[in-house]
Amino acid sequence: MLKKLGIKGRVLLLTLLPTSLMALVLGGYFTWMQQSDLQAQLMQRGEMIAEQLAPLVAPAMSHKNNELLERIATQSLEQQDVRAVTFLAPDRTLLAHAGPIMLNPAPLGDGSQMLHRSGNDATRYLLPVFGKHRNLAGDLVPDEADRLLGWVELELSHNGMLLRGYRSLFASLLLIGAGLGGAALLALRMGRTINRPLNQIKQAVTQLKDGHLETRLPPLGSQELDELASGINRMAGTLQNAQEELQHSIDQATEDVRQNLETIEIQNIELDLARKEALEASRIKSEFLANMSHEIRTPLNGILGFTHLLQKSELTPRQLDYLGTIEKSADSLLGIINEILDFSKIEAGKLVLDHIPFNLRDLLQDTLTILAPAAHAKQLELVSLVYRDTPLSLVGDPLRLKQILTNLVSNAIKFTREGTIVARAMLEEEHEDSVQLRISIQDTGIGLSNQDVRALFQAFSQADNSLSRQPGGTGLGLVISKRLIEQMGGEIGVDSTPGEGSEFWISLSLPKARDDAEALPGPPLLGRRVAVLENHELARQALQHQLEDCGLEVTPFNTLESLTNGVTGAHQTDQAIDLAVLGITSNDMPPERLNQHIWDLEHLGCKVLVLCPTTEQTLFHLSVPNPHSQLQAKPACTRKLRRALSDLVNPRQLRNEPGEPVSSRAPKVLCVDDNPANLLLVQTLLEDMGAKVLAVESGYAAVKAVQSETFDLVLMDVQMP
């Protein structure tokens, strides 16, 4: 509060506050002392009046002269402050009374001495009258000195005492007020003598702040203030000199800037032109690479196509090995070129995303199906987990999303020597028309350090080049994935611990498809019981969820023997198991033993579906009675799994419609391509299928051929001259 007061207010406060406190304390003390003296005087006066009345009324009380007592009582009222007088007999019966009714109750005591009782408005006195009081009146009776003749009772009013106290208090307050007023006037005068020079200093400082540096202060009348004014004047002079020097420097610098402005403008124009040329060159390069997609991929596809054709011919093992090396190298080169072309399209801004409905579970499972051979070649387990609360029918670009997942899963396979790769899709947040998804790819590979994570999403960068030389790659895959995710409005990240593995994740918001109704379990499978064998815990959990989504009641088992015993026991009850899904590898069971277990299960009426790694399908092909319907590759796709189990429960039969003979004429096909290699490749493939092919190299020749002959099919390159 003191900070808000000015100097004048502070001086006034410091002057009046102690003075007021002292005046109040002293005034209160003296008033209390005077009031105490007045009360003591009133008590003494009452006792004196009572003692004076006792000798006067003693003869009248002795002679029972009530008339005399009445006169004495009436005369006693004339004394100051006496309010009422009463004379009582020894038994305290009324003898005489003058004045109003007494306010206070009668004092209590033994009656041998004067008694009194005070109230707010009056004090009541009670004095016994003895025979000795007659001696004071000259009417002494022998042997009656100690005889009680009666009582003198009087009441003194406090009004007079209070009035005198109020007068004294008023006089004290008047003196205090006069003293405080004088102190206030003195404080105001002192405040003005201090405040006036301070206002002059304030005005001078304000003028200096506004730029009037020529302002100076005159003498202010006291040594301290004069020293302050002198210091301000010296400061103003210094500021004025500095301002003049600064203005001179500014003028000189302005002149220099004016002279160099033209040179700077020329340099800026040249830099802008150079920047535009660099941007234009970068744009032309990106557009060139983006437009060269067809021309670059065409010869590579020709190499791959003829490699596949050669692999079907009779070759020596060494020649087949050479062709395998050529195929792997060409596939690797095609993947690198595809990444570079995608990156160029993104840089050129030519990448357009689709917005079409797709099924999230099918997309994730199809991605793992494509990459399963590479994972199984390293004996890795691939698992897909789609949480049940996750909406599956969404709208987006499934091709680009599949490209991102393919890159993440492919990297996990490259950098994982053993263990498991788990792809999870879960719901983070759901709205009325959209969902926030989180898709993660977790591996048990080499892991990443913090330094590797920081450089991971940079173009042409790879984590730990010493380890990445064997898998190879351009380092563009994650950059392309990051750009695609950002273009979709999502984000991508990684959580990793060196030596323990990594988890790459994407968080993406996608609209819901209008038709979000999932395929309900059909009658062939609904309510049927199925036995499941899968040694890998996560794979068993994923397979169990898939079968439950098909409407089946699942019973898991740890070994094939326990599964066979369980099916045998259930067959003897009304809870028979209809199906068995066996997820096995050659390490779990030799293929030659599997056939006997399948025969035992089917003998009990339990149809069997075998799931094995893609690299071991050839091994188990002879161990399964009907490999086309009873053998599938891991990881199982829900769509294919439902179809296969339905076919086992209700086999489909192929029927030939009568009256429709099969034509033995070879189809006639026209092939059109301006690239000789591609044209020859397509022609060879069709001829191997039994078609009669006519190959031409231009659109003009194709038109002439169609005009002159009839073809069952025309295959034409979309980009023709």
CATH homologous superfamily annotation of the largest domain: PAS domain
What's the number of helices? Answer: 20
Alpha-beta content class:
alpha/beta
User: Span from first to last CA?
Assistant: 92 Å
Into which percent range does the helicity of residues fall? 40-55%
How does CATH name the architecture of the largest domain?
2-Layer Sandwich
Task: Supply the CATH class of the largest domain.
Answer: Alpha Beta
Major pleated sheet: 5 strands, antiparallel
C-alpha geometry: elongated
- Number of beta strands: 20
The CATH topology of the largest domain turns out to be Beta-Lactamase
Average pLDDT, all residues = 81
As residue ranges, the low-confidence spans are 465-472, 653-660
For the largest sheet, list the strands in their spatial order.
2-1-5-4-3
How much of the polypeptide forms β-strand, as a percent range?
15-25%
Descriptors for this entry?
5 domains; five-stranded antiparallel beta sheet; Beta-Lactamase; Heat Shock Protein 90; alpha/beta; 721 residues; 20 strands; 17% strand
Helix and strand topology:
Layout (H helix, E strand, L loop, with lengths): L6 H56 L3 H11 L5 E7 L5 E5 L16 E4 L3 E9 L1 H5 L11 E10 L1 H51 L13 H69 L1 H19 L5 H32 L7 E4 H18 L3 E6 L6 E4 L1 H17 L5 E11 L3 E9 L7 H5 L10 H4 L8 H11 L3 E7 L3 E11 L17 E6 L2 H13 L3 E5 L2 H12 L7 E5 L7 H13 L3 E6 L4 H5 L5 H4 E3 L4 H12 L18 E5 L3 H13 L3 E5 L2 H10 L4 E4 L5
Parallel strand pairs: 7-9, 13-14, 13-15, 15-16, 16-17, 18-19, 18-20
Antiparallel strand pairs: 1-2, 1-5, 3-4, 4-5, 6-8, 9-10, 10-12, 11-12
Helix pairs in contact: 1-2, 1-4, 4-5, 5-7, 6-7, 6-19, 7-12, 8-9, 9-12
